[in-house]
Automatic annotation (TrEMBL):
The keyword rRNA-binding belongs to this UniProt entry's keyword annotation: no
Coiled coil: 32-80
Organism: Eiseniibacteriota bacterium
Domain of life (superkingdom): Bacteria
Span of domain C4-type zinc ribbon: 198-230
Record-annotated CT398-like coiled coil hairpin domain positions: 12-187
A Pfam family hit: Zn_ribbon_9
Record flagged with keyword Coiled coil: yes
Protein keywords: Coiled coil
Name of the protein in question: Uncharacterized protein
Lineage: Bacteria, Candidatus Eiseniibacteriota
Amino acid sequence: MNDELRTLWALNGLDERLVTLKAALERFPALRKSLEEQRLSGRARIEALKKDLTDFLAKRRQLEKDIEALVAEERKYQGQLPLVKKNEEYTALLHEIAGTKKRASDRETELLTLMDAEERRHAEKPALEKDLAALEAEAAQRLAAIADEEALDQARVDHVEAERAVLLASLGAGIKARYERIRVSKGGRAVVPILKGACGGCFRGQPPQVLQEARRGDRLLTCEGCGRLLIWPPDSPA
Ligand SMILES: [Zn+2]
């Protein structure tokens, strides 16, 4: 095998590793996103609780105001009782007083029910806060681990990129451009071995003349099927 073919073969080996390494790098954004989503859902549960407690407070304040107003109304009617002269006016006033009392009592019942519900919801807070703290701590830890892994994977990529730059620089301009063009159009794989007399990329059987030439390893051959560069693998018997 001549030097150019040897370089192409080595270059292709690096590029195949790069495809795998870069595919591995792509898992990181999704990992980060899922951690971020867990965090957000924990925060959303706390926010929902806070909103419920605010709503409870507003409803409670309103009921308390209503009750206060009803008590004041009843007191006003009670004050009018001794001043009333006519019987029917007296009866009407007693009727108003009873109605006001009933409304106040209904509001009191409502208030107690509300306060019960409020207390139960409030009791959920410590557990939710604890869950969130655990979630945040775990997320922070895992994000740090992910960052380390990613840096390591990126360093591997950088290392292979540097190696390939050296190999690429040693090729002539024409073959370099050709290699890169095929690599880009074939998903990172420009050079394929001939395996059992066929192209290792598209499995098209190669004519005997091509096989003979490939064995000699002195000339670059192209697969008519897929356009990749064909090389007789250096580690297989000639
Ligand atoms: Zn092919």
